[in-house]
């Protein structure tokens, strides 16, 4: 049986199971915000340390700081940056709610595990981001913005010369030429950051609207001589290209990429294998010392052929960084943003009687496991 704090909804957060993760799903600022909505908060001791939030800060904001086991015992709603692992699922109380990026598009076996655990699971990746009411809940947008910023910084730090043009006593050093493939939230942030660092930046995306977006930041748009006029998919994300379109795009990008010092790829298709934007031939065409930042690299693959999480140096001296967790490198700000997204979702479904949902609501599309019996109007 779940022992709750005062009020009917208690939001619990534990230390993320992923050892590479520095973010936390609750910050002191958000504790105060949830308290105003009569939502109590419990958090595991030390959960915010990697994000520079102390237990004292949480307690002063009104949260209860307890052991991991106590979080599971006291809370009835749980927030995660990454999805809960098997050990977490085993500890979550039957009938409780789980909110986070659950990977529900590609892993139905995991969704089945959530169902078997008797949980109500809300996948942040399924929120209808085009709705104005869901804008403050859009964790993909907030974290991708952080990712794009950090990608540009990592590229500048890894490249063996300056990003801006420098005039020195020994001569003038030309600015770096940076190519950003994918002009969504992450790509535009990478473009803007690289421009502020002084690089000559070029961007590319298949969406028709992307040219204006790229040029509005003072960057050039890479003209491949191709027309993917239906390049935008549902929710504002780039659609998956056909095999023929991908082949045309790859050949053109491979040819154009050779002129650049840095390539940053950010083209993700949520929950699915990312499109291949730079093939082995394109990588081999880059000069020695060129840097690639593949933000889409994961176990499903990446935008760059041969990329994988971590650092790789090719035989021709090109440095490839597969960086699926870049947002974690800006943990304080990324946590504040993600915690706000998660908290607004919890607040939306919280009522005086507990957590409830109405199947007529558009936001309920994000519920991948309902935790409800036939005829029941909600989950308490």
Automatic annotation (TrEMBL):
<protein>
    <recommendedName>
        <fullName>proton-translocating NAD(P)(+) transhydrogenase</fullName>
        <ecNumber>7.1.1.1</ecNumber>
    </recommendedName>
</protein>
<keyword id="KW-1278">Translocase</keyword>
<comment type="function">
    <text>The transhydrogenation between NADH and NADP is coupled to respiration and ATP hydrolysis and functions as a proton pump across the membrane.</text>
</comment>
<keyword id="KW-0521">NADP</keyword>
<dbReference type="InterPro" id="IPR008143">
    <property type="entry name" value="Ala_DH/PNT_CS2"/>
</dbReference>
<dbReference type="GO" id="GO:0008750">
    <property type="term" value="F:proton-translocating NAD(P)+ transhydrogenase activity"/>
</dbReference>
<feature type="domain" description="Alanine dehydrogenase/pyridine nucleotide transhydrogenase NAD(H)-binding">
    <location>
        <begin position="156"/>
        <end position="322"/>
    </location>
</feature>
<feature type="domain" description="Alanine dehydrogenase/pyridine nucleotide transhydrogenase N-terminal">
    <location>
        <begin position="12"/>
        <end position="147"/>
    </location>
</feature>
<dbReference type="GO" id="GO:0050661">
    <property type="term" value="F:NADP binding"/>
</dbReference>
<dbReference type="InterPro" id="IPR007886">
    <property type="entry name" value="AlaDH/PNT_N"/>
</dbReference>
<dbReference type="Pfam" id="PF05222">
    <property type="entry name" value="AlaDh_PNT_N"/>
</dbReference>
<dbReference type="GO" id="GO:0016491">
    <property type="term" value="F:oxidoreductase activity"/>
</dbReference>
<comment type="similarity">
    <text>Belongs to the AlaDH/PNT family.</text>
</comment>
<dbReference type="InterPro" id="IPR007698">
    <property type="entry name" value="AlaDH/PNT_NAD(H)-bd"/>
</dbReference>
<dbReference type="GO" id="GO:0006740">
    <property type="term" value="P:NADPH regeneration"/>
</dbReference>
<keyword id="KW-0547">Nucleotide-binding</keyword>
<dbReference type="GO" id="GO:0005886">
    <property type="term" value="C:plasma membrane"/>
</dbReference>
<keyword id="KW-0520">NAD</keyword>
<dbReference type="Pfam" id="PF01262">
    <property type="entry name" value="AlaDh_PNT_C"/>
</dbReference>
<dbReference type="InterPro" id="IPR036291">
    <property type="entry name" value="NAD(P)-bd_dom_sf"/>
</dbReference>
């Amino acid at each position: 049986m779940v022992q709750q704090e005062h009020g009917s909804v208690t939001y619990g957060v534990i230390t993320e199971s992923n050892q590479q993760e520095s973010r936390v799903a609750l910050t002191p600022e958000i504790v105060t915000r949830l308290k105003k909505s009569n939502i109590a908060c419990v958090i595991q001791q030390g959960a915010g340390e990697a994000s520079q939030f102390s237990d004292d800060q949480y307690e002063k904001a009104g949260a209860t700081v307890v052991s991991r086991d106590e979080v599971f015992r006291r809370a009835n709603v749980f927030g995660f940056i990454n999805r809960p692992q098997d050990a977490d699922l085993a500890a979550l109380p039957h009938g409780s709610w789980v909110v986070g990026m659950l990977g529900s598009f590609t892993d139905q076996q995991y969704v089945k595990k959530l169902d078997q655990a008797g949980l109500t699971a809300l996948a942040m990746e399924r929120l209808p981001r085009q709705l104005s009411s869901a804008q403050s809940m859009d964790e993909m947008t907030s974290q991708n913005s952080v990712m794009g910023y950090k990608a540009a910084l990592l590229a500048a730090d890894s490249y063996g010369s300056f990003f801006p043009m420098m005039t020195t006593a020994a001569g003038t050093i030309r600015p770096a030429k940076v190519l950003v493939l994918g002009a969504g939230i992450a790509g535009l942030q990478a473009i803007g950051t690289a421009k502020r660092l002084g690089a000559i930046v070029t961007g590319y995306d298949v969406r028709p609207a992307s040219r204006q977006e790229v040029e509005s930041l003072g960057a050039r748009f890479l003209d491949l001589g191709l027309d993917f006029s239906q390049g935008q998919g549902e929710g504002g994300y780039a659609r998956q290209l056909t095999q023929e379109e991908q082949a045309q795009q790859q050949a053109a990008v491979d040819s154009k990429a050779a002129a650049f010092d840095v390539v940053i790829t950010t083209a993700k298709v949520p929950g699915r294998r990312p499109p291949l934007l730079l093939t082995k031939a394109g990588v081999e065409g880059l000069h020695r010392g060129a840097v690639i930042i593949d933000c889409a690299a994961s176990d499903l693959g990446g935008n760059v052929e041969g990329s994988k999480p971590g650092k790789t140096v090719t035989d021709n001296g090109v440095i490839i960084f597969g960086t699926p967790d870049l947002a974690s490198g800006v943990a304080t700000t990324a946590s504040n943003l993600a915690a706000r997204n998660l908290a607004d979702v919890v607040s939306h479904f919280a009522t005086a009687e507990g957590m409830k949902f109405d199947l007529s609501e558009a936001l309920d599309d994000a519920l991948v496991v309902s935790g409800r019996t036939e005829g029941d109007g909600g989950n308490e």
